[in-house]
Amino acid sequence: MQQKESEDAVSMNYAEIKKTDVANGPGIRVSLFVSGCTHRCRGCFNSEAWDFDYGQEYTEETEREILQALAPDYIRGLSVLGGEPMEPENRGTVLRLLRAVRKQFPGKDIWCYTGYGYEKDLLCRGTFSEQAKGDGTEADYAETMEVLRMLDVLVDGEFVEGQKNLSLAFRGSENQRLIDVQASLRQGETICRRTEKLFPALSGEAYG
Ligand code: SF4
Fold first, then answer.
1. Which of 185, 184, 165 lies closest to 175, judged by CA?
2. CA–CA separation, 146 vs 11, rounded Å?
3. Which atom of ligand 1 is nearest to the CA of 49?
4. Which residue among 3, 62, 78, 167 is least crowded, i.e. fewest CB within 10 A of its CB?
């Protein structure tokens, strides 16, 4: 598989970086909210970030800032959300960040939030390319798969207002799933985390 040159992979805007986030995954996390999303879910909490030009330009300095923020021992991991990290316009830059995080912090976990469906959009190369307006090439699919291989948990699916549930942890509507990506890829079937009702403490190692 041919990797993109890191120099041309930085091309994205972002809305915000939270350096001590406790809402988007277990523990204290660094969260990156990217700009740009084509899903346009009714009731979206972050509709200003639908615009790919919203917020600030993501630069190599931004990446360094995120890596620095991840360094303290009390930071459990990185969450990437938006906006839509898996849009073809954002995916290359997100992948570059994930590669760097995996290299520098192999003990930290990585969560990603996407409006796309794990099986129907991301694992299915034809459907994903068409729906996500990717270029439909092998490279497009390979990039998607490399992002997936970097993840611990993928929270998938659009926000569905009719299934909104404020008691859910780490997700907004009932249809969204917490997918254990490593186990899913290893076993060739979708493995979801247990629901938050079964999460004993939402902290430490107890969330799985
Ligand atoms: S996928 Fe997320 S950011 Fe995009 S419209 Fe839906 S809720 Fe909003």
1. 165
2. 18
3. 3
4. 167
| Residue 137: predicted pLDDT | 73
Strand partners of residue 81: 33
Measured in angstroms, how far is the CA atom of residue 85 from the centroid of ligand 1? 10
Rounded Cα gap, residues 106 and 130, in angstroms? 33
- Identity at 143, one-letter amino acid code: E
- State the chain's mean pLDDT as an integer: 87
Residues constituting the chain: 208
Q: How many folded domains does the chain comprise?
A: 1
Task: Give the type of residue at 39.
Answer: H
In a domain, 208, yes or no: no
Q: With a 6 A CB cut-off, is 41 part of the ligand 1 pocket? A: yes
What pLDDT digit, counting tens, does each position of 31-50 carry?
Answer: 999 999 999 999 998 899 99
**How many beta carbons lie within 10 A of that of residue 80, not counting itself?**
28
CA Rg value for the chain: 16
Counting ligand 1 atoms within 8 A of each CB, the residue from 31, 40, 86, 156 with the most, and so the one to mutate, is: 40
- What CATH number has the domain bearing residue 85? 3.20.20
Tell which residue, 58, 127, 47, has the closest CA to residue 82: 47
Whether 157 is in the pocket of ligand 1, judged by its Cβ within 6 Å, is: no
Pocket test for ligand 1, best of 41, 51, 112, 164 (most atoms within 8 A of CB): 41
What confidence tier does 6 reach under pLDDT thresholds 50, 70, 90?
A: very low
49, part of any domain:
yes
